[in-house]
Amino acid sequence: MTQYILSIDQGTTSSRSIIFDHDARIISNGQLEHEQIFPRAGWVEHDPMEIWNNVRETVGLSLARANLTYQDIAAVGITNQRETTVVWNKLTGKPVTNAIVWQDTRTQHIVNELAGAEGLEKYKAITGLPLAPYFAGPKVTWILRYIDGAQEAADRGELLFGTIDTWLLWNLTGGIDGGIHATDVTNASRTMLMDLDTLQWREDIAADMGIPISMLPEIRSSSEIFGHCRDHGSLPGVPIAGILGDQQAATFGQACFNEGMAKNTYGTGNFLLLNTGSKRVHSNNGLITTVCYKIGDAAPIYALEGSIAVTGSLVQWLRDNLGMFADAPDIERLALEVEDNGGAYFVPAFSGLFAPYWRPDARGALLGLTRYVTKNHIARAALEATAYQTREVMDAMNADAGVDLAELRVDGGMVANELLMQFQADQLGVDVIRPRITETTALGAAFAAGIAIGYWESEHDVIATWNEDKRWTPQMARLERDQLYRNWKKAVTKTMGWVDEDVET
């Protein structure tokens, strides 16, 4: 019987279920968006129950559209928005509050408390991460501190914590009736609670954050059987055999298995990962060290990562908040109607600046305006911002790696934007390559699950399916490229120091 792999891709704005065949071709998919909740400036939340219900529905949609049943699915892989934090009661199965999303900045005061006199790199040698509101640990601290009854319930051992992968795994495998409470090393590495060398939780850091160890999931590899789907769901008995955080999944799906290979995903934010092999590389240039993946009992593979908070979500903001256009792809049409940015630069520091600056006190700014500037120039400036931010991360990566990257593999929704991709190649001065299958995040999770059950033999099967679709080669003169970038760097400095200490972030 022909069997397939089902990948659950739970992202920042939507949940998708995609069914792949053995040749990594998409057979069918289902997708549903969920609400973005903004209770206050700087706060971003999701409803975990809405996400869980949407995932169940998308699984049913993908099966129905392919005319398949659970018997046709060999395994399930999960990939997820990473640092987004859920705390729930294991007795009732209900979250104690909404999920705090990775973009949320409310924990800045907790981060400052934790840093103390030792500074923001207090835990970096252990966890690979600077202290920042981005990561999950301080979000758990906030929930325990400010949600009524949460600390007491946690102390009684009633509360569980998880990133979205853990929340889905627990529910898919039974929830209050024996649900598996586990995560993989890639997601655990985004909590600021895991030792990158031992791949185990650090009880001392958890104690600093006031988090009982009983709340934390078991840490496992990225490719192994975590458990089997519950009897009363759409996939009874099907093994869940792969879990990867979304950016690590995209790296896996892009077949970046050799040391020195890099990919950049253009989604809600941008995330550039460089495979550093079995050695963890400490960054001196504002990047973070993270686990890239771990296959079963094999040694972990590490990566350097440059995380950019706002890229695709800037396009969404221009569409939804300002009404500049009706559909996200329309931004390219607007931008193509002008030859350049008209002197305008858009620094989208809506959640502060992530890599390579790590400045939570920054806020978004539109600079260089004159009466000459039109909405077309602003559209172009928004797209260019994505390319400039990527160049900043690439420069940091080249400095840390000690060798310049020769090419960049790209994926995510924005890679359909030809103007952006050409400008990206121009700014980086290297070829930018889009693969035939751009759903690399879902594909990476599918491959991890398939390898665990022998559906695919190894990473070599991933390499065999990767094919180039389009390549953009730099065309801009170096002088022009550097002038544009110099003005961008100037614009970035104008966004810093916006939030004072006595202003709630």
From TrEMBL:
InterPro entries reported for this sequence: ATPase_NBD, Carb_kinase_FGGY, Carb_kinase_FGGY_CS, FGGY_C, FGGY_N, Glycerol_kin
Keywords: ATP-binding, Glycerol metabolism, Kinase, Nucleotide-binding, Transferase
Annotated metabolic or biological route of this protein: Polyol metabolism; glycerol degradation via glycerol kinase pathway; sn-glycerol 3-phosphate from glycerol: step 1/1
Superkingdom of this protein's organism: Bacteria
Source organism of this protein record: Rhodoglobus aureus
EC number: 2.7.1.30
Domain Carbohydrate kinase FGGY N-terminal: 4-253
Protein name as annotated: Glycerol kinase
Function: Key enzyme in the regulation of glycerol uptake and metabolism. Catalyzes the phosphorylation of glycerol to yield sn-glycerol 3-phosphate.
Single GO term (MF): kinase activity
Binding site for glycerol: 82-83, 134, 246-247
Binding residues annotated for sn-glycerol 3-phosphate, in chain numbering: 12, 82-83, 134, 246
